[in-house]
Amino acid sequence: xxxxxxxxxxxxxxxxxxxxxxxxxxxxxxxxxxxxxxxxxxxxxxxxxxxxxxxxxxxxxxxxxxxxxxxxxxxxxxxxxxxxxxxxxxxxxxxxxxxxxxxxxxxxxxxxxxxxxxxxxxxxxxxxxxxxxxxxxxxxxxxxxxxxxxxxxxxxxxxxxxxxxxxxxxxxxxxxxxxxxxxxxxxxxxxxxxxxxxxxxxxxxxxxxxxxxxxxxxxxxxxxxxxxxxxxxxxxxxxxxxxxxxxxxxxxxxxxxxxxxxxxxxxxxxxxxxxxxxxxxxxxxxxxxxxxxxxxxxxxxxxxxxxxxxxxxxxxxxxxxxxxxxxxxxxxxxxxxxxxxxxxxxxxxxxxxxxxxxxxxxxxxxxxxxxx
Length: 372
Fold this sequence. Notes:
The chain has 372 residues and is mainly alpha-helical. It has 3 domains: 8-69, no CATH class; 75-152, DNA polymerase, domain 1 (Orthogonal Bundle), CATH 1.10.150; 180-370, hpI Integrase, Chain A. 50% of the residues lie in helices and 10% in strands. The N and C termini lie far apart (73 Å).
């Protein structure tokens, strides 16, 4: 094994009397002795400095020299421009992108001129991200989207982040599909009529938590025996200092939807509706009138409830599992997956199939066995 020594310069006088300058080094990439002949001592000194500062790798030295000569914007500047120019995202999402840039991209790739960034640079950076695979995927997606914008702007010919493989994510916590007996036990343990109605609404409509918590009286039509909900809003984190949750659109474009309620939850909402309810008043609030934030609900209501009945329940579901349970019961009753997709507000049928498709297969097997 060769020990890499510092690059050196040797002056050479040619037969015609002119002087040349040889730079000699053992290249780190090939392990072989290498040399370059340069016309001036200054050029030879520059190459020697590049080699010595890049571990005796001519390829790395050439890359460093190219970056010094580049007039292109840096990777950091390209990402900043990409985030600033995004449309259709709220400030909370924009803030998350900026945090990902600052915490995971800037120190490693930020200073590199975008036209000198290589796939090798990106692959090495991805391998260095010490985060869960899903987080790695999200951060890589931010970089790749910004670089794709640089391609469209003519700054680079191709996207060096495209096609870089990200480690597969570990399976998420599986959904909990509650039985009828379990849901009856859960609901019977809730004493507050408003919280009971809220949980029953999640179970009977499949609304996301932040959609249900954002409902106003004007969003529900209780005139018939089966009420109708018009979902157009959801609570979201603002992403701004000193400002908590704010109202925004639902999670997906197809989250804006109409959901028909069963008779029982319709009656429950009719029962808790004040006689002079203002149309813009939130249906579900804390005792002081503040909105029923996710954090408050988990800490003050759901967590203590699970602590008290979890052992008897035989599971520790999350509030989101009431949505999963709603979907599972629709499948048990033979409701087609596209209908369930629309009711849940999934952007793609793929989400519905990936989450609940196995239940549909199970239901079909039961139907077939009934004919045996």
